[in-house]
Fold these 2 entries.
Entry 1:
Amino acid sequence: MTHDKTRPNPPMDLHAHIEALDKAGLLVRVDRPINKDTQLQPLVRWQFIGGVPEDERRAFLFTNVVDSKGKRYDMPVVIGALASSPRIYAMGMGRPVEDIGPAWTDAILNPVPPVIVETAPCQEIVMQGDDLTREGGGLASLPVPISTPGYDAAPYLTATLCVTRDPETGVQNTGMYRAALKAKDRLVVRMVARPGGAGGWIHWNKYRARKERMPISIVLGAAPVVVFTSPQKLAVDLDEYAVAGAVAGQPIEMVKCLTNDLLVPAASEIVIEGYIEPDLLEPEAPFGESNGYVALEAFNMPMQVTAITQRRNAMFNAIISQVTPSESSVIKKVAYEPQFLGHLKHALGIKGIKRVVLHEPLTNLRPVIFLQFEYGAPQTEIWRGLQGASTLLTAFGKVVIAVSDDIDPSSVDAVLWSIAYRSNPKEDVVIFPYRGGGQGSQYGERKTDSALLIDATRKRLMAPLALPRKEFMEDALALWNELDLPPVKRPSPWHGYELGNWGDDWTRFAENAVRGDWEVNGVETFKRQRSGLEAETTVRSVEK
Ligand SMILES: Cc1cc2nc3c(=O)[nH]c(=O)nc-3n(C[C@H](O)[C@H](O)[C@H](O)COP(=O)(O)O)c2cc1C
């Protein structure tokens, strides 16, 4: 069989992915000792808050991890390898960035069911029974970093695939939920507990009603296509592994856990197996969250660990979340933006919608959404779009702003400029009540929220944008570079363009001016002098 070069070829385990990142120059290897409790996450944080351009962000591999007690871990820690940037995410998908959205849409429609295998790399080493609780054993053997040193109450598992099964339908669910280390054989897992909340929480409620403990396995480190499904809001009865299989172009190999009956990806790095009791809850957190605030202590689900299985050369995979941008926001943005656009375009059939941008820095994608419409899209369609984006998912779309297609919706400056000059708040702003409380609202008094919808599209023909026309800016950029001046970016807008209110006579004037023939213009306007007018009377109101 000849290899089809057009077929995507995503890495099928974390090792293959790290190797590919290294080859592409997207991996930083740190061999000096790094303290996982105080240094590791803060070091990588600088890449997100220190102004490193998105495309230059890297994954980090720490090969010499120590902790605050001076213990040295044999297992390396890899962080930032899943989604430090869309480019890194795309490497995990085995596709270019622009194909990410269509690949997910297609995979959801055409899932490829997983296959079950008998032996698996993730079970090469098994820790069970007394080995879990001996000095330095169990969870204490894993180099689990502290995400927000100074606020977090424990090291946390972050890049998790928490696998549970619906006791009624038998369908497995996988979610990325944080888990706090509490003892060598106990964690506390936090699953969002509200309508529209975590799939695992929905399962737990069913076990609770039956008074049965819930089997759970936490997978750490797997093929990126598998991990990427974990934070996605897929339909509860849709098997994440079948979606991942469709993206991979081959079925995902699964193996049965040793101490519960769940299936986990065979090529995983580490699997923590166990059970959650149907009733007992234990205080968990503080822990820094992706809404930019520290979650305060709350009662969540203690998991009793029954086994830890791993590959012989396992790597510990962590994710950097908290204040955005972070891996947590990139991992969601690349999949959610196409999902929103698809919903508005195809499910709601909104005419003129072109682009959806979820605002990322600090706000973390959910609350602020920008929609880009073709100029001339009917006002009724713009308002359907604003409402559609505000209601698709709970906690998304607290502020939704529509702009026209000459405005770059990924530039907040350009969006504010559009609000400033293209909207009349009295007519173009609606405040919509009775939204669900946003993420983190469980720590405040308020249970409901409202939405702010703004139509900042261009409603009429407008005068050109007051920057030199494109050809002058391009020539000048070549000159700038020739003069060896500091490098410049091309923000949007970076050149003038017309917005409908313009005329051939003014084009002629401008052409005369750039040719040096400004006096020709003066000769013409001299002939058009008039008396009896107020200053600033527009020419068109008099001459046409
Ligand atoms: C880095 C990261 C951390 C997350 N932590 C949690 C968490 O602790 N609890 C939770 O319920 N959801 C968390 N989420 C969101 C869920 O992963 C997301 O809602 C996903 O859709 C859950 O899958 P489910 O719908 O099958 O529950 C996190 C997402 C990311 C990217």
Entry 2:
Amino acid sequence: MNNETILTDDAFLVSETDEKGIITFANDRFCEIAGYTLEELMGKPHNIVRHKDMPKAAFKDLWTTVKKGEVWTGYVKNATKEGGYYWVYATVFPFESCNGNPGYLSCRRKASQQEIDKATALYKTLD
Ligand SMILES: Cc1cc2nc3c(=O)[nH]c(=O)nc-3n(C[C@H](O)[C@H](O)[C@H](O)COP(=O)(O)O)c2cc1C
């Protein structure tokens, strides 16, 4: 299926996870683009939106980076509930949540067609 959602320039998709990658928050725009209600996302592993074209190496890099307390940025192709997909440029921040445990926050904006083409070519070379 080739059902791509192109984000608008002002779209800002936010989600938060606990230290295990379980979703603890998503903003309205994230829910809308992904095609889920907030209730459907809360408490689920964030790989609920994983697209099969994404290489494992990208997420390995994401987790290694944020667990060190550093900020990760990268291009991500996500799957929608209906079987479509959308590309984003994501920035993932580690933070300390109120209970003292680590939490992670991802802010996503539109990726340009040029950025998507580059990421697609790169990801084909990764496992
Ligand atoms: C804050 C945060 C946001 C994430 N956002 C996404 C996302 O939008 N899409 C995605 O596929 N994985 C995202 N991940 C990575 C997932 O936790 C997971 O590692 C990835 O989907 C690969 O699935 P797997 O670990 O089961 O192989 C995010 C992780 C964190 C910490």
